[in-house]
Each structure stands twice: as C-alpha cells, then as structure tokens.
Amino acid sequence: MKDRVHDMGGRDRFFGPLPPIDPDEKPFPHEWESKAFALALLANRVSGANLHAFRHAIERVPEPDYLSGYYERWLASAEILLLDSGVLAPGAVEARARRLRGEDVEEPAAPEAHKPDMPSGGGGNLRTVDQPPAFAVGDAVTTRAEMRAPHTRLPAYARGRTGTVTALRPGHVLPDTAAIFIGEYPQHVYSVDFTSRELWGDGAEPATVTLDLFESYLKKAE
C-alpha cells in the first residue's frame, strides 16, 4: 500500500522548515473555518465514526485537496465519513453546489444509511490489557518495516528502524483496527527513543526522537 500524503514526516518535498508560531494568531482567522470545524465534528458523530476513523478519512483526502489548507481537508474528510456511512449519496455535495450556482441539476436520491456498529469497551481510548507487556524499559526494539495497514500510527520514516524502550504507557485501543470498525484490540503502548541519524541518516542534525508505539508495531532488535 502506498503511503498517503498525510505521512510526510522526514520528507523534504513539501514545505521546508516550519515558520515560528505567531502568539497572536486567532484560532479561526476566517469565519468559515469555525463552521468547517463544527461540521467535521458533527459529521463524525452523525456517521457513527470514531477518532481513528476520522483520521483515516483525513488520510484519504486527495493530495491537492489535502494540501489546500487545514480546514479544507477537514471539510473533505467530513464528506468522506458521510459517504462511507450512507448519510450522503455520491455526488450529492457537488450537485447541491451546482444548484446553488443556478444550474439545473438533479440531486441524487438519498441512500440507505449503513453506519458502522463496533462494540466499545468504554469511553475514550484507554483500555486494560490482560496479557503482560512483551517489552521492558531498556529493551532494544525494531519497528516492523512491512506495516501497510489502511490506517496506522507508525509513521513511514520510522519503519524498520531500531530504538530503545524508555517507558511503558497505558493500554490503548488499536487505531489500525478501530479506524475500519473491526474491533478495538487494545494493546500495550511503549515510548521508544530513536536517534535522528537512525531515522534519517548520517546527515541528520543530532537529536533524539521519541515515538509512542503499539506493541504490534515492534519486535525485539536482532
């Protein structure tokens, strides 16, 4: 599976160094952005989705739309969620926009909703994991290079890289399965330290990068 546009960590073809944060920047510089924010959150609820499915939807926004702006991709992801669950018919948004422009276009009939139904182990994403952790603080671990799930929290730049476990975190719902509604499958989560040169080569500025990674992403280093 090809890595999607959202997974751009460590790539140099996008934006270059980030500009300094403007402390006086407004949360929503334009009024429509606050409406887009609210619509995306409502779409998540109406479609029966969860946080992981919302992220998965954002990852499926086509590259030109994804790169057009932050709230532009939130709007696009809201449409994807509503299409996935049958709340919207394919082409409905485009047809409505054309009608608002005065074109004589017939809107598609409303589809039959088919919202996802996945059992939940409780509110939030923290879960108890019955089996003991496979790794301990100080263990050298290597991330799995073959990870190509439709949705995963293992970034492409960290696949097949070796680091050191520095902390054991509480168990969490596994995003890879929850995003596509096949189960929560909670796992242990580990903080793993990597050197920047392990991730990006000898030319990288020396630094330590810490990632919180699910147990299934890791194996003992050889």
Automatic annotation (TrEMBL):
It comes from the Bacteria. Residues 127-219 form the Nitrile hydratase beta subunit domain. Residues 1-20, 100-126 are annotated as: Disordered. Keywords: Lyase. It holds the Pfam family NHase_beta_N. InterPro entries: CN_hydtase_beta-like_N (IPR049054), CN_hydtase_beta_C (IPR042262), CN_hydtase_beta_dom_C (IPR024690), Elect_transpt_acc-like_dom_sf (IPR008990), Nitrile_hydratase_bsu (IPR003168). It is an enzyme of class 4 (lyase). Its EC number is 4.2.1.84. The keyword Methyltransferase does not apply. It catalyses: an aliphatic primary amide = an aliphatic nitrile + H2O. Residues 1-14 have a biased composition (Basic and acidic residues). Residues 3-109 form the Nitrile hydratase beta subunit-like N-terminal domain. Belongs to the nitrile hydratase subunit beta family. NHase catalyzes the hydration of various nitrile compounds to the corresponding amides. This is nitrile hydratase. It comes from Blastococcus jejuensis.
